[in-house]
Amino acid sequence: MTGERSFRGAEGGLIDRERPLSFTFDGREMTGYAGDTLASALLANGVRLVGRSFKYHRPRGIFAAGSNEPNALVELGTGARRTPNIPATMAELREGLAAASQNRWPSLTFDLMAVNDLLAPFMPAGFYYKTFMWPRALWERLYEPQIRKAAGLGRPAMAPDPDRYERGTLHCDILVVGGGPAGLSAALAAGRTGARVVLCDEDFRLGGRLLADDVRLDGRPGHAWAESVAGELAGLDNVRLMRRTTVFGYYDHNTLGAVEKVADYREDRAADVPRERLWHIEAHRVVLATGANERPIAFTNNDLPGVMLGSAARAYVNRFAVRPGARAVIFANNDDIGATADALSNGGVEVAEVVDGREGWLVKRALGRRGLRGVELSDGKRIACDLLCVSGGWDPAVHLSSQTGVKPVWDADSFCLVPGEPRQAEVSAGACAGRFTTENALRDGAEAGRAAAAACGFDDKAPDQPAVEEPAAGNLQPIWTVPGKAKRIFLDFQHDVSLADIKLATREGYTSVEHLKRYTTLGMATDQGKVGNVVGLAMLAEERGVPIAEVGTTTFRPPYTPTTLGAFAGYNRQQHFQPVRRTPLHDWAERRGAIYVEAGPWLRSRAFLQPGEDLFAASIREAKATRDGVGLCDVSTLGKIDIQGPDAVELLNRVYCNGWKRLPVGKARYGLMLREDGIVFDDGTTSRLGERHYLMTTTTTHAGPVMAHLEYCHQVLWPELDVQMVSVTDQWAGLAIAGPYARKVLEKVLPDEDLSNEGFPFLAAREMELQGIPARLFRISFSGELGFELNVPADYGPAVADLLMRAGAEYNIVPYGLEALDIMRIEKGHVTGAELHGRTTAADVGLGRMMSTKKDYIGRRMVERPGIAAPERPSLVGLVPADGTSPLHGGAHLLPRGVPTTAENDEGYITSPAYSPELGHWIALGLLKNGPDRIGETVRMVDLVRGADIPVKVVSPIFVDPEGKRLYA
Amino acid sequence: MRIPCPLCGERALEEFTYLGDATVKRPAAEETDPKAWYDFVYLRDNPRGPHRELWHHLHGCRAWLEVERDTLTHEVFDSRLARERGTEAK
Amino acid sequence: MAADAVAGLANQAIVTDGMRYSLFNLIGQTMRGHRGWPRAWRDPDPKAGYDVVIVGAGGHGLATAYYLAKEHGITNVAVLEKGYLGGGNVGRNTTIVRSNYELPGNEPFYEHSLKLWEGLSQDINYNVMFSQRGVLNLAHSDGQVDAFARRGNGMRLHGADAVLLTREEVRERVPALDLDNARFPVRGGLLQPRAGTARHDAVAWGLARAADSLGVDIIQNCEVTGIARENGRVTGVETTRGHIKAGKVGLAVAGHTTKLAEMAGLRLPVESHLLQAFVTEAIKPMVDQVVTFAAGHFYISQSDHGGLVFGSSLDGYNSYAARGNMPAVEHTIEAAMSLMPSVGRLRLLRHWGGVMDMSMDGSPIISKTPVEGLYLNGGWCYGGFKATPGSGWCFAHTIARDEPHALNAPLSLERFESGHLLDEESTGPFPNTH
């Protein structure tokens, strides 16, 4: 093994030689320096073989120096922090970094799956569509499991991600994407005017190609200029520099998504530092200065470790003072040859040969097995080398502009795709617009920054441009591939898509660019085609015999580079996925042993367990205690909407299907609301508190939707109505007091009120004072018992509950939860969400007579449609087990006796089962075809998924106190 | 996407909920032709291009808005309070 | 009856003048450098007229043409496609195939489709990689467990498969779920073992190849610009490649159904909405089934290639853009992180959008229309992929016989007017809520 010193230059590079860092690769201890990437450090340590390809498991090395790296993907970290598929070129080196190669077994150098490379002739593009079909059963049992195991790159961590992520929003006048010469120049021009500027760059150091190329600005090295500009920008309050921040997506109306790496590069990560932050950036203007990615020229065995982009080689030599090889051949079709040759020579790499494709002299084939040992040229000459720098021209990074829905266009002069006409307030500057020189980048950037600032109302004067000395560039002659062994001429390295695959696809008729992509998987690897797509397009055009412009491109989709899922979620994960709503009585209930149940965002008390009790026992006890004595239930989650104004009653009359005109002050009424399609939307009581003042209650689930609906009705349908409404759900705690002793308990705490049956009859509603606090009392009941609902200001809820508990102690008052409430409402035949599930009509649930025929209301006309009005629709019935003992199952279906158990005989289903403590057996509500006509009939409860088929008797849905004696007591 | 609210200014998409086509009009109360109601509840032009539509500034001022937006480019041309719509047409 | 049809299909091999796909031919072609593979489908110019013109060479249009030829002997058929075949939602979806529907009007249709899936690769001689890995819906409350039981019982009554799982059975099957820290705890699940995924593009390509081999003309880059009618009857279509006469015209252009229907003077109970889908970088196997959870309207599976494929709800506004916005992206990934926080360090490779035909009740339409000779297949919401073979089969029947099959009779266009709605989500006539 070659040691660190062999490939690191003695001096130079933008690394901190005072800060050596140790790290491991596949368990081997190595050292690098602060300022290295994992890739540069690996090269410095003489590591050439870094990964294996996806399909054929071919050996691969480091090919690029940035986010376009297709080959050198590694797993970083261990255990729950293991992160697969990270390009070594994008991993900033830090002390203790643990990297491992992936997709190989048992080891990187000896990978058994490399047998695929031998079998490659049998595995061209789409081979799996043509086989694995016989025998049919084997696809599922053998072929697919094997394919799945072989596929995939790195291994995911199976434990929850222990790191934190944050999300934030930034607003700015101008967002500059990219911190190379164009971006820095744009930020400087805009920043000096005072405009609020945000500059993002994916790298940890600003400068872009200025860090990698031998460019001089005003006589100084390019990186020094970048550093001084970054320094000036950092000093401006109106400019925010965001390194390690990738703008990954360009969404509508100049909203961009960016992700900032915060903790991964730090050695001293504190617990409160998030791993990454996701930013929404809202910008008035956007300057895209995203640069360009170099493309290769494809030839036989062009994927061997040691074959590298010329621009990458320059980056390793100049920026990192690393020699990516000892003896190099340069192969290019443009003037970058000179820059690469100079950089390599200056960096101590022997340049064995310069092969200028424009002269018709080509690299025909790379030689070697696990690494490059030489090249064979088109004239047959062989040259020994361990580095081949290949330059096929530049592809502007048009991704962000294209994501806005603008198609990039083929520039036939520069042989590359350039951005189309902008659709949003954005401009592309420098290399990403196809203007590749540093001088162009600086000028473009300055002009873009100036114009953007001017458009935001700031001074427009462009800063002076530095004098640029840069190597010759351009003069490209398009050479895409070198004829050879097509199966070994790779276009998409990671996915092993070869020229032969392109030819096969076009031969078979997959000639649309999208067909080609999908059939061959060209461009679908983690580099998203940054390396190979354009060469692929050129080859498709050649095969089809049309100009490149005619084949078009596939759609550019976000994200620009793969983006951490955790960052998108931010804090909203696991228990924090959505906020929890707690009632004012939540803690009060908890002290009494409450267990909770989710009801939408709410947590509601489900039952109050006493020692040794389970949910079933507790709910039975609570229901019984309430029916025999008195109980207290937290109903604060019910929606409450305060409605006031001269036309309040008119609004109610139009949104409810029943009439409201004659409701007197001081009375409540049950109301049923339909959707416009005639289906039940919501129900609840509404009370008239004053001449023009109503309080509507809604179900817990629909509190929000009903409020929005009322606002729709008022603002959109009937703005002429003089009425106002506001949700007061959170302002009031709601307490139901039910049971034969309910009145006695209330009379103790409201001694001044006449709560007698005459003074406060069923459906009475009154505002009053309870020991000096405002209160509202309603004589309504969901349990069927003598019942009241008391509303008090939310903060007083627990105190009033305590007061009631003390007052009720002599009657053995119990708190009861949702489960007991459910038992009692089923006993009473009251419908809830289980029956009003969004597909039932008022008639289906036995409330058909509520629908007024004398007025217009939401849903009136649609309810007359035959499908909605059909009498045979399943409608509400009660059910009891014929044997008197068996439990009934929610979700079981109802079928007649003596018929096959098939769908044709399906007549309905059970919606709400419960064990009735009053009756001593199970009961249920259900929806049954022609239900009300079938009382007394015996049908079957069929529960195939839980294994039950028992006779049940159809009965009235009101099991307890059908005459309402208790209710009106 | 950003939606301009006449009361609050331009706000991010996540503050709003969407209902749909603002051009369908609820028939008059006395309308008894089922076709008219079917049209209102179910049928939509669904244009590919400018579309007048109802948005609710649910997590904001709770105003219902009538917004004109292009369904192909998502460009927003106009936004007004739903309760004031049609006023200048008269 | 459905089962007989399936058996019939499985026994009937396609006669192609091309080359059968088989291991034998793959080996043979390997020896010849794969130079002998013929075109998968021809690239014909349109003829002057056809018995049937299908608009839209997506999964449904191609399946319709295939079954017209195969089941009804109608081979003088053109499938017109404005872009490239398979370029719409058949190539943009999350590849889930299932028949776990609740409503009696839906379940038999989807179950018939699932049965067709089970023999599709062999039937069309193209491996669509139909993978019956199971679809598991997670329930978050006892009420939801009951609702799933109701659905599962309905499925079983219709002859489909359904298994109700306990929380512990869910935990065992899907180790990637973090059941103990979930905001909405998992109480159980409904598993359909025969459901799964398929390779979406392969479905379009395989059907195209099979239809083509039976004589159907698939004409790409041919946009329909008008529907010609005489005396209220369809006579042909205007296209960017000229007028094409047609005895019957079937529309299968989900996402753009209303645009085409408008050409024949029809307004529909359909809106176009935007749905996004997501895929991560390829990783080694992590999730074996398709898992969905209602609390976040979220579904996830892992492709054979290794990427986690997932999605959730619509962006929520009418759109033809096929490009979504951030709130839906974040919502979807929050849902992923709510129950599978081990995906946190994985990276999103790509997210994309498709234009959905959202019908007013969330269920599709395979139907005759008020215009004689014009047939409609649309309103697929986000459930079109799983229906591909069943939809083509039923639409072919409807076109060939000029009346719906019993399986698609409930999916009529008239149901909105008559009130025989198929509202699986129970949310009413609001397309963005389904």
TrEMBL record, chain A:
- Per the similarity annotation, which family is this? Belongs to the GcvT family.
Q: What is this protein called?
A: FAD-dependent oxidoreductase
Q: Which residues form the Aminomethyltransferase C-terminal domain?
A: 876-961
Provide the GCVT N-terminal domain boundaries.
Answer: 585-855
Carries keyword Disulfide bond?
Answer: no
Organism's domain of life?
Answer: Bacteria
* Native organism: Ferruginivarius sediminum
Q: Name one GO molecular function term.
A: sarcosine oxidase activity
Keyword Ribosomal protein annotated: no
One GO term (biological process): tetrahydrofolate metabolic process
Q: Which UniProt keywords apply?
A: Oxidoreductase
Domain named SoxA A3: which ranges?
487-570
Automatic annotation (TrEMBL), chain B:
Protein's GO biological process: tetrahydrofolate metabolic process
Name the InterPro entries for this protein.
Answer: SoxD (IPR006279), SoxD_sf (IPR038561)
- Gene3D superfamilies associated with the record: Folate-binding superfamily (3.30.2270.10)
Q: Which GO terms describe its molecular function?
A: sarcosine oxidase activity
Q: Which named protein is this? A: Sarcosine oxidase subunit delta
Which source organism? Answer: Ferruginivarius sediminum
